[in-house]
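fyi for ur records
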Amino acid sequence: MIDDLTPAALGFRETTNGWQKQVGMRTIDFRVVRTREDFAQCERLQRDVFGVSETDLASFSIMVVIPKTGGEVIGAFDGERMVGYIQGYGGYVGGKPLLLSDLMAVDPAWRGGLGFALKTLQAALAVQVGFREAAWTVDPLRAANARLNFERLGATSRVYEENVYGEEFAGGLYGGLPSDRLYIHWDLASERVRKRLAGAYQPLESDAALSLPDFPAEAIQTRVAVPTDIDALLARDPAAAREWRFIVRQQLEMAFADGFLIVGFAGSRSAPNAYYVLERGR
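which gave:
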């Protein structure tokens, strides 16, 4: 039952003002964000992690109204310092409730499980207030995000959006690339997602996509390559990074039009490329 998707069932221990969970070797405190001081820490993380300008910043005046939509802003803390946070608006799309998980930022020094913990807590709180589906967008060139979204969280995607925020968005992070995005769908009521949140799924091995044909292909499953580390490539060869943007855009748009959707991700951090795993007709 989806109603069993509670913070406690996902390993969060309730505290006086939120929850606590062991993430790797660290004990992290989690709480919904309500104070101006904590919202200021969300703003700091956006600047530090994404390099956004004041124009692109999701400011206190925006975040403070999110709980009024049925969504939440959730912070992860080491003591009183916020080391990660996630925000999601509640709303309706096509007549059905949908949580738009708009933004997540994690301090680089705290990566390695904290993003997954924030997403799982967001899912549990969303289910408590009646949401059964969530969605968000992500840069298709970011392999680490793809591994989290499609393997650990069990999300899927069949929609590609071109240059959503313009080429000036978060220049310190994206280096002037068109801000293309994958639209991610997360079915919280599905067995696929619930198994992953409960830790009952083993992510694909790094070589799992090596035997799949490259798209275009007539097979049930196919693959689309992306750079393993787009940040390193941007620093080393901006022109090559920009070329990757348009190659991946073309391949994924063609694959989605041909009836494929992204269902997985595989690749080794030591290899130059990693791969989206696409499946036809699911």
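The longest strand covers residues 81-93. thats all i got for now
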